[in-house]
Every structure is written in structure tokens, then in C-alpha cells.
Fold each of these.
Amino acid sequence: MTNTEKLKDLVVDVFLIDPKEFRVDLKREQIETWDSLGVVSLAVGVQETFGQHFTQDEAIGITGIPDVIKVLEARGISFDA
Amino acid sequence: MRSPNIRDLAWLKTVPLSAAVLRASSSVRARVSAELPLPVVSSCSDIPAGAVTLIAAGGGSLMDEAKHFRARHRPALNLVLMPSIWGSGAEASPIVALNRGGAKEIAIGGEFLPDTVIYWPELLATIPPARARRACGDAWSHALEAFLSPLASDTLRAELAALIGEMLSLPLAADPRWFQASARACALQASASVGLVHGIAHALEHPLRARYPEQEWGHARLCSVFLLPVMNLNRAASPKWTDLARRYNIDEQAVWTVLQRLFEPEALAAALPLLNENWMKILRDPCTRTNGALVRARHLEEIALQAAA
């Protein structure tokens, strides 16, 4: 499973969206179920899936899937298109 | 946030109680009325306008109803809570969980804390052993889910680890020390949130009571029944529990022994159809979303397998 596929599974499970709705450029406002607890669940899932913790600043700055990818890429995790 | 005064029955009997009314659950009403001969109201909305003090004696739901009523309708009322059983810790918590049309509505605020809490250990004498054990499960679910919550700070986890150590020394039976332990567990979880056990309890309590009216399906039993399957799920999903238990010197084997003693496999099997029906609702519950491990749609199957095991 590629990292993009892992991220897709994670986002689908966290936000309970249809897998067909997933795109790597999804923003928070495009995910109806992304509320104030969204980043908390996402952080737990990222830790389990990629073994990486968000810092508090990183968590605050996440406004969509591109930000998640950016944080993980900065830690050496690559995402193929 | 102010803390309520902790007193006992002897103290309460020395206080002038003119203009006080009593709201008590049926299980303790006669006993409490014998000690405190006060006008009894059958619901908070029946409290007379001139009442100055409300004494609410009963379980978590009754106490939460009184807390909510005082905060929203009669803020000048002096509120005295007398828990009839431990577990919920509602008497020490700024959280209220209200039954609204079959769903739980949660509200949080310092205005919900009572003025005084009366612990009356003699009330424990008539609690059946199964109910006493389930009340312990309620307190255990607060402590363990708060400990694992992603919102828990290091300081809070240290306090919870100390509490878990103390709870391991208590019997899963009627013991007055559970009052303070469960009150602490509840107060600590109010700062950290809880997890999947509570998401399940919020979604299933009402439908289980409707389907099995002859059985005692309350919050405490749901916590007891689902705590082992959920902790197994947490342990399998990530190393978080094992790592944190080691870091905070929690005896993992001793905790699992408690969870196994609380577990009721037949009750889990009976609840499974409703768990299945309500799973999406459970996944959306705010408590589920602060579970120690990410709860995924496929985890329903893993919980179901534990009933078979």
C-alpha cells in the first residue's frame, strides 16, 4: 500500500467520507464532517499510520490534506501523485 | 472553577433546612426521607418558588438533572447532591449528560457544580453485588479512557496513573472508598475527555433499555461490558497503551484482570445487533473521536469477534 493510499484510508475513516470523494488537495471547508475534533482524530490516525506526531503548531496550521502531506514530507515521508 | 464542599450526613442534619426540598430516586427515597423529613418533589419542575435548598439523592442521571435545572432555571438555589452509588462521579463533575428524546445531550460548565456533596456510606448496604461491580466499571472507564485520551496532558496522565494504582487496590464491590475514587476519575476525565466506551454508551443506552426493559441496561453496565473489548481494540491498534502504561508504571496485567472481571460476554452478545445498527452514530460521537486509538469503521467486526471469543 502506498503512502497516498494509507492517507486516503485514514482520511476516509476519520471524516467518514466516501472513498470516491478523497483527493489529495481537499481543504477543510470541502469536508463537511471536519469539525473542531477533526484535527484531534487526524493526529491520532497519523501517529498510528505513519508513526509521526503533529506538534501543536503543526496541528493548528492544518487546513486541509495538502498541509498534512507537507508536514509528513518534511519528516521524510513521500507521497506519489 | 470552585470545588463543592464535601460533607457527611451528620453535618447535613445539623444545618437548618427550612425551605429545603428533597428529590430522590425511588431506591433511596424512603431511607433518605427517614433521616431528612423534608417535602419531596417528584421532578425538578415541581420545586416551589420559595425553596432555598434542593437536596438531590440518587444516581448520575438524577444528579445531572438537578445540576442542569439549578444552572438553567434557579441559579440562586443551594444545591446539595447525595450520590446513592459511586461510579458516575456526577456529584464532582462540571459535565451534565441529559436524556433528550432517546439521545444523550452533553453540557459542560462550572455552573453545573453543586455547592455541597454528602457522602453517606450506609446507603451502600442495599446495593446488589452486580450493580456494585458495574458502578466500579463506570469509574474504571472514566480513568482508563481519560488516561488514553489524545487531549490528556502529561500532568493529567500522572494524576490518572496514581488514581488507577489506587483503584487497583479496591474491590469490585461496595466500598465507600469508591465514592472519592470515582469522583476523582470523573473530575479528571472532564479535563481530558473519554473514548469509545462512552461513545457506545451514549448511543446504546436508550435502545437497549427499550429492547430489553427487564434487564438493567444503564450507563454503568454498558461501561463494564464494553471496557474490555475497547481496551483490547486500543491495545491492538497502536502501542500507545503499552507505552504509556510502562511510562507511568501502571500494572498492565492487573488492569486486564479487572477488565476481565467486569466483562459480561453474554451481555455483549445481546448488545451486538444494536451496536451494529448504531455504529455510524457511535463513530460520530464526540467521545469516540477522542478515543486513545483511531476508531475505524472496520473495528465493529473486531468488537463482535470478542463476544464470540
Amino acid sequence: MQTAGVTATIGATALSGCLSRLGLGGEETNASEALDEEDLGDMEASEEVEIDLWLSVGAEDLLQEMADEFAGESDTISVNVSQEGSYNEVFNGLQQAQTADEPPEIAHLNAVHTLPASAGEMIVPAGDLIGSGLDSDDFVDAVGNYYVNDDDTLLGLPFAVSTVTCSYNVDAFEAAGLETESDSVPLETYEDWTATSTALVEEAGFPQAVTWPALGWFYESFMSMQGQAFLNNDNGRSAPATESLLDAEAVREIYAWNQSMYEDDYYLNSGGWGDARQAFLNEEAAVLLDSSSNLRSMSDGADEAGFEHEVGMVPHHQNRDGEGLIIGGGSLFVPQGIEGASLEAAAEFLLWLSEPEQQARWHMETGYYPSSLEAEQIVADDGFYEEYPQFQRAFQQLKDRPETVATAGAFTFDHGEIRTELDNGLDRLFGGNDLDDVLTSMKSDVDAVLERASEADPR
Amino acid sequence: MSEHTDRLQIFSSTREAALLLLPTMLFILVFLYYPFVETVFLSFHRIRILGNETWIGLDHYVRMLESSDYRYSFGVTILFTAVTVTVSLLLSLLISFLIHEVDRYKNLYLVSVIWPYALPLAVAAVLLDFLLHPQLGVFTWALDTYLGIEFAWDTDGRLALVAVMLGAIWQGMGYNIIFITAALGQIPSAITDAAELDGIGRLQRLFRLYVPLISPILVFLIVVQTVGAFFGGFALVDLMTSGGPNNATNILMFNLYQDAFRNQQFGYAAAQSVVLFAFVAVMMVIQLKVTDRYAYYGGA
């Protein structure tokens, strides 16, 4: 019995060990008062300091290399980059570090954490820190518009921003007798995708034609392509959202199309990211919807696998105009509790990272979008887009999107849990449940989360 | 002589004994009891960001009672535990018996059946995923090709639960077999010889003779494996199904983790943790009382 009791206690302990309550670390810092604006951009702190940056995505080595270059030019600042797990793990880790009064100077959080982090006063708005040094006119609208509060203050420095991107296997399209040029490839509407899938399976002998991870973000992107907001109150931007709009006809069109593609064996339900990418590279599917952040890896992988890789379109219903994609990925935040030389160093490094040269390099080596238009020009001048035109095509789709309620994307607490409910709905759909039942239950599940989320939202 | 002086005196003073006990007591207090009390405290609070707590009393417990998802998760956990513990013990008993009976290569058989237990659960889950993957798995491919059976556990919740249970049974058997084989080895050969002279069949010998004799070990394994199933299925679920499809494999431990570390509902997760602890503790008491009645510890 003692063994059982002790083991059971450990179960509880495992959780609470991570939940120690000590209050948010440090006094709140008024960043604009703490920093001397005149010194901003000199790449120096008032004393020698080493700062930590917690990254949530891959490319840790690349960012460390960039940070070392920055440190080489600075007499006082060095930056230590570490990959601290997934976005969720970094968000949780940051909270624990703040309770222990030891937050990193910079943390990389997901877009969906922007609201809880800022409303929970976990972070210092980036605009207060480096706003005077930023050229906000140079920001890509889609990026700049996401991470701002009601006063248009930038909350975090957009970094590793991505969208859903469509990759296709040019050789497979050729074998199926389809148009292969990216401007005219038949991948614009649901009708196109179905007809293209038929050709790929019947003419090119593919077991299945298309795949993407069955995850909520992709379906929110489908909604924005349909011009359909996901949540009420302007996608939760004018006021906390209280209801999802999953009963809209535009949403039904998405799921009906996906269901028929699945039942016809055209859509490969590959579950997670890794399986979908493997299916594309192993030529089990000829079209892949993925994060643009993985473009470089898919392009190189296709080279190795011996087929040509191109970027197509994320589809919309044939009776609608394709509106545009929501953004995903993350942003760099400076936590509350960072002060003095550390705060100066964090601000200097963020400002340096926001410069077009750094944004261009990050874009070229990863596929994540740059936040600045000038960076795109640098990439173009470098001749990179001639070698990898698919990068430009993907970025173009984000740049060209109209700024509407739908493309702004949902802004709410508990966005992660909402996406889990979308994933569960998909499980039911692919498990053979009736489409309307799935949509109804999914709406009530998401609305139940929204009820709690809107209560927590201080806006 | 007083009762006190009857006892074996190792330390001349209680102060010395207390001092020696102190490190252990401190360790237990800091790493076991303090976090447990903290968890109970957190369960009465709403916490959206760590450090910002609002007292809400029993709201989380009420929400748990009212939540059909939580009740479902509870049911799945009990089913998972009952099936994995029963099947794993039964199979382990049979395999151990066969190893006990065999004359040659005993150690080779023993090592080969214990081997899966030596694998970390995460590695076992990745291996199983390779074997059982709905589209790419070797085992599922063979099932589909030769028997025409589609083992689509990525979309069928019941099959997903079966896949995870198979994993837990396969991985857990090694531990049972170590103990049962050792216990069978302790049985005096005279008993076996007498049974054989009386013409008792093998299976009868196992269930009528050996099982009662090794019952204390079986009780121990039932208790340990039950606790293990409640707390230990996490890695398999996390790596193989992530609780899906449609929450079909969302056992309590995984549900708790999701609510704490994915959904940032630390208070609600703490309440789930407290309930899980209480449930397992009560179940252990009942289990020990019931099984004690049937276990044979020697003597008259």
C-alpha cells in the first residue's frame, strides 16, 4: 500500500513540481522609461552582458551563428540561443522561469500565445522597446497587423512567420498529363483539386493524390481562403469572441470537399506533420499542404528523391474568390522582469534581427517569411528567387492578401484547445460520422471552450 | 522491564536517530508532500498564467463531474487498466510457466521475453508505431495484404485503444515474467514430483498448485501493474495516438497533461491530479484487502 500511495503521490507531484507559485518575477518594467532612445541601435549595452534566447523552432544553429555575428560587432553583448522545445513548451517554460525570477531575455512564442502573454502581463511590448528604431512602413501588412494591441503597439517582433503553402510534384503532374507551370497549375479551386487528384491516381498511378496534416491551423487557413471568419466579433478582434462560425456555408463547403476527397481515396489522412512530409517525399501523394517554414527542406528533399518541386495554391471553393491566408509561426517577446543592461541587450538584438539583411538571410535559409519588404528585395537582388522561385511564389500569396477580418485570423484565449477540438472533429469526420453532425458537435465543442476563453479575456 | 527497553537499542539518543533520518525526511517533504499540498491548493484556483491565481473553490471539481469528456476519459482509463493488467498477467503467467517447464535454452527464452521491458517506453512506442502504423506499418500491411483486414486505428477509436493496449501489454510483460519465473523457481521440486506422480495435468498444476503458492507475488504484481497502468500509459498514448482519434485513447494521465501544458489550465489539471491520486489510493486499499484474502503467505 505504501508503494501505491507513494507512486500515486508522485503522479500529483509530477504536475505540481512544475506549478510552484511564487508570483510573477520582478517589478513591472516600463520599458520606454528604462531605455535611452538615443542609444538605441548602437548594438551596445551599458555593461558587458550575456543574454539568453529561447527558440521554439528548428534552425537553432543558424540563429546562433547570426547571434555570434551580432556579438562580433558588439563590445558588450553576447547572445546564447537555445532550442527549448515546442511553442507550448517554451510558453510553459517561460511562465515557470518567471515564477522563479529567471526568465530568458528573449522568448519565442507562437502567434496564438500573443493574447494570453500580453493580457497576462508576461511581456514588455516590443513597440515600447524598439518602436522608435523600427521602420513600421516597411513591415509586410499581414505580419505587422497580427501582433499589435488596440493602440497599434507592436507586442512582439514577428520572427519565423509562416503560412500554409502548397507543394506539388512536377514530375507527377507531367505523368498525369496535367499543366505543370505554377501560374496555371490546376490547383486553385476545390473542383480543380478533385479533378487533378483523379488524374494523379488514374493516370500517374499515385496511391493517393494529396495530403496535409489533419490539424486545426490548416482548416482555419481554408476558412480565411473562403473569406470566412472563424469566430464572431470580427474573429475575436473587436471584442472577445463568444461563438464560432462553424455553421457557415463557407465552412461546410470545406469539410464536404475534404470528406469527399477522403472517401474517394484522393486525400491521404497522414495525421501529423512528419507523416505528411514523408508521404510527399516518398511519392505516396503528389500534392502537400505544409507550413512555408518547411519549404527549403521539401525543396531539398524532392531534389534528393529525384523529382521537381514547385509551389501551387491553397484552394478555395469554385463559387468564391480566394481571399488570403492567415499567418502562423511565432514572434520574439521580451518577458517582464528583464531590466538594466539585459533589457538594453535584448532590445539591441531584436532591433538588429529586424533589419532587412538578417530577415533576408533567415528567409533564404529556412523558408520562414521576412517581416520586411526590403528584405524581399535583398533576396531578389541576391538571385535567390531565380534558383528557388517557389519561395517567392509562397511569399507573394501572403503579401498580396487583402487585410480583412477573415485573413486577420482568430484572436482569442485558449486557441490551442480550440484547435484540438477542430482536430477531434476531423477524427469524427474521417471515422465515418455524418458531416452535419460533425459540424454541429464541433461548433458546440469550440463554443464551450470560447465561453471559458472569453471569461479569461480582460479586454 | 518496560516495553521501551524491550526494543533493540541501536542509537543511544533519539536526537541522533532523528538527525540521521533528517535528510530522507527533508527529501520526502520537499519533493513529495510539499508539491502534493501545492497541487491541492492549486486545484482550488483558476490559473491562466502561472503566478496569477484566482480562488474559485470547488469549481474545477464540479466541472469535472459535469464534463462528459472527463467521464469518458475515466472510463477509458479503467478499461485500459483492467485489460492491460489482466491480459499481461495471464500471458506472463503462461510464458513463465513454459520457461519454467522447458529443459534447454531456459536463459535464452527468458532474455528474449524480458527484452521489451528493457526498452524505454518512448522507444517501444516508436517501434510499435513502425510495426502498427495504419498506412506504413509492417504488421498492418501484412494484415491487409494476406487477410484483407484493415487495421485503421488512425480513424477508428476502438482500434486505437486496442493498439495502445497491445503496446502496454507487450511492454509490461517482461517485468511480470522476471518475478513469476523467480517465484516458480522457489517452489520445491518435491511438490512438482508429487503432483506428477498423482497424474495431475500441466495446466491444472499451474492453476491449482503453483498459482496459490506464488499468490503473494501475483498480488504484488497486480498492485504495481495497476498503478503503472494508471500513471504509466502516458508515453505510449503521447507518441502513438496523442489521445485520439477523437479522444478515444485520452486516458486520465494524458488528459491531465493536455489540460496543464497544452491548454494552460493548470488549476483544472491540478484538480484532476488530486482526483486521480485519491482514486488510485482508494482502489489500492480495496485491491489489497480483496487479494489478501486469497493470497497464501505460508503457515497454517
